[in-house]
Amino acid sequence: MLEARAHVCEARLFPDEIVCCGIESVFVPYTDPGLKLAQAIRGAVVAHIKRLSRAPRVILLENHGFIALGATPESVLAATLMGTKAAEIFVGATAAGGAPRFLTPAQVVRIAGRPDEHYRQQALGL
After folding, report:
1. pLDDT at res. 2
2. What pTM value is reported for the model?
């Protein structure tokens, strides 16, 4: 089950999610609140930055919640809204008896690298 949850962080359902939430999110398995949770978040974020050379825009904390990061309040709101939309799509597809169809890693990289998507990010202040 942990692999399935982690996969949701590495996959994307639609282009706007890539634009507003980045190519993938950080997933932190359940950890008790307090210092241990803070250390787990730090470790997961540092690993993400080392691997992708960029800070995450979304951190998903198992049984704790959702953290959106950004340089401006607008970028945090955009990541939050797109994270909510992705969760609703995921739940809706699952409730309908199917599995959501994620974009392939190649599609995610292609969309993330498109000049028009970079323009959208700039226009949105991301």
Report:
1. 46
2. 0.85
CA–CA separation, 53 vs 24, rounded Å? 12
As separate numbers, helices (DSSP H) first and strands (DSSP E) second, the chain gives 6, 3
CA distance 85 to 17: 8
Q: Round to whole Å and give the CA distance between 9 and 23.
A: 9
Confidence of residue 8 (pLDDT cuts 50, 70, 90): low
Give Cα separations from 85 to 24, 30, 43, 81 (angstroms). Answer: 15, 23, 27, 6
> Which tokens belong to 40?
């787990």
* Distance between first and last Cα of the chain: 32
Residues whose CB is less than 8 angstroms from the CB of residue 11 and which lie 6 or more positions away in sequence, other chains included: 24, 102, 103, 108
pLDDT of residue 1: 46
